[in-house]
User: Fold this.
Amino acid sequence: MAVKPQSSRNSYHVGNLSAQLLSTARTMLEEVGSTRLSLRALCTQLGVTPTAAYHHFTNRAQLLSQLATQGYQELAQVLDAAGATLAVHDKLRGFCLTYLGFARDNPELYQLMFGSELTQENMPDTLREARQLAFSKLETMVAEVLQLPSNSADVRSAALASWSYIHGLTALLQHRVLERPVEVSDQRIIERTLAGFEVLFKAHTAAINSVLKLPEQGVDMPKKSPVVIEFSTTETAFATILIARSERGVCTVLLGDTPTELYADLQQRLPKAELVQNDQELAAALKNITDFLTKPLTPFDFPVDIQGSDFQKSVWAVLQSIPVGQTLNYSEVAERLHKPKAVRAVANACAKNPLALVIPCHRVLRADGGISGYRWGVERKRELLEKEQQARQQ
Assistant:
């Protein structure tokens, strides 16, 4: 009796595709945000058939739930690691710093975890458990500080107050409701706001603005004239290029299809800056960049003004050390930073690179050597790598 062959859909299965889909989704999430993340777009990015993701996720909501679950699990891990190394009197401040750092390094994931896309009614148990796991790490820290059992009502109330405080502060900073000078660190922000709470609780009637506006010791800065950012664009066969410069040096290099698109991107990145087109002053730097595109061994000889978190800057420094014609994968970058578990954070930092070409994030590949997402287009990434490889062989 002949055996009826299985349909391609029923027989289709790749053992580790679920993990690959989740990993790719994490990268795409930070690049395009949750609203533009779909199962079909995910399949296209991974290079599999348009229906492949549906073998692993019932729908888009399940994919987002699994990403959020992963986020809470990672948050629990970093909180647990922080709690294990801190002295008791430093635990709450350490929790706040760790939480703020997690949100800064994973902004879109953090927004998904606490945003409105995941409704309470349809939330899977695994996501609820992961969220409770993260909260339990804070409860453990609070219990140690208060020297009370972790299941006591006082510990839970204090833990809720702590989470409410740092979550509110994180939201204010992420949405730029609360402005701060670049030189003011996360640690100083937290110290000042906690000091504000202490004043508030002691005085009972102290103004809440003392917490929100950070008036102490120069953190609340007087209003200043907008920062002037000069920019210029040029069009090449490779891409339209926009370059922007602060008073300290080139701060942004963007690639795209049209000058209008890139100008809108620059406005979004620097919403409070006064943007002034200055083609003449930036002509030399633009030529330096176009020369690099035709001759990849051409060095960049203009000053740069690199803005980002300490972790992002450390990642970008590693990228700048990769020679023309060579590549690293995300794991290798993490290992060079002595943070082998920070692979996703490395990918996020690459996606946030403000200086295309100058900081060569195109030289970072997947662990299998494949070309993954590139903010300015995968085909451009492939073309850059081919040109650099040819230049090195000549």
